[in-house]
């Protein structure tokens, strides 16, 4: 990336926001932008049944223009566990359904800091567990058609939900798609084991400061951030997990940790495909449909779903 483009992007970098104070403003801005960009959508809302201490979890079902696959994607949105919702992700999920040619179920899990860890994780787990046990709720033919997918913090949640399902003896999805996921707790350039944190953590779309703020809002107790339910790279047993596609962004500080998680999954005996979108920034799944990065990612996803990708 040349200096001029990097300089322009720097104006939009997160240090110009204080996420601890401005997260509500960011939420409003995201909804406003989504409302402007929202395409014609074939969506309906569905809620889980209230169960004890778990609140009803809204889920929005998106249907494609043309059905190409029997799969159903259970999608967990990004936003650092603090921002994002089914409204702000409606344009992205409409594109997702159309490009993948299948149903997408977008989960509106609870957000920090109002609802810190593990509230959002519990919501995602409940929805995934219920759909895997009752795939007919989303018109899936069989649970093997259910795919967990998430971007950024949502990729983190998808990875953790898969391990929780396995550990609790529940049905485990056959496949998962993790887009530039958060997989570990340390994003300090002085101590992080990953070079991408030092290369891309200061002046691009996502910064070290922003990730750290998100983590502290999501998990206020510092020691808990090393828990495998927060940092899946800390998980000691990564065996018997879904076939996995990890897509990283070449200009993203999370690039190396997402790819490291893919390596760890493969070392544990899972089938894993890794693809880096070289010139992409963090969060590219929400870009307009004409984005080159978006086209590349969905081409890779289609190959993975059709079983044409070779494990890495």
TrEMBL record:
InterPro entries: AB_hydrolase_3, AB_hydrolase_fold, GDXG_lipolytic_enzyme. Pfam families: Abhydrolase_3. GO terms for molecular function: hydrolase activity. Residues 73-285 form the Alpha/beta hydrolase fold-3 domain. The keyword Flavoprotein does not apply. Keywords: Hydrolase. This is Alpha/beta hydrolase. It comes from Citricoccus muralis. The lineage of its organism: Bacteria, Bacillati, Actinomycetota, Actinomycetes, Micrococcales.
């Amino acid at each position: 990336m040349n200096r001029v483009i990097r300089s322009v992007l720097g104006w939009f970098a997160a240090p110009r926001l204080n996420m601890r104070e401005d997260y509500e403003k960011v939420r409003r801005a995201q909804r406003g932008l989504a409302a402007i960009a929202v395409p014609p959508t074939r969506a309906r809302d569905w809620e889980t049944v209230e169960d004890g201490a778990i609140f009803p979890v809204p889920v929005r079902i998106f249907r494609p223009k043309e059905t190409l696959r029997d799969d159903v994607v259970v999608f967990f949105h990004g936003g650092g566990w603090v921002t994002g919702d089914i409204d702000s992700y409606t344009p992205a999920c409409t594109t997702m359904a159309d490009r993948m040619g299948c149903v997408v179920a977008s989960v509106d899990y609870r957000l920090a800091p109002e609802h810190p860890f593990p509230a959002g994780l519990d919501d995602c787990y409940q929805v995934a567990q219920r759909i895997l046990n009752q795939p007919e709720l989303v018109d899936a033919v069989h649970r093997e058609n259910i795919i967990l997918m998430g971007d950024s913090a949502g990729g983190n949640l998808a990875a953790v939900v898969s391990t929780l399902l396995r550990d609790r003896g529940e049905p485990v999805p056959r496949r998962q798609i993790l887009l530039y996921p958060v997989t570990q707790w340390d994003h300090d350039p002085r101590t992080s084991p990953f070079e991408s944190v030092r290369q891309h953590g200061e002046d691009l779309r996502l910064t070290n400061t922003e990730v750290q703020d998100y983590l502290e809002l999501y998990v206020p107790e510092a020691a808990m951030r090393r828990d495998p339910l927060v940092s899946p790279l800390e998980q000691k047993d990564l065996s018997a997990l879904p076939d996995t596609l990890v897509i990283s962004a070449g200009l993203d500080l999370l690039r190396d940790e997402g790819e490291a998680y893919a390596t760890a999954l493969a070392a544990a005996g899972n089938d894993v495909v890794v693809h880096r979108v070289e010139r992409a920034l963090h969060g590219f799944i929400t870009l307009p449909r004409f984005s080159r990065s978006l086209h590349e990612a969905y081409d890779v996803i289609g190959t993975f779903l059709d079983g044409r990708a070779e494990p890495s």
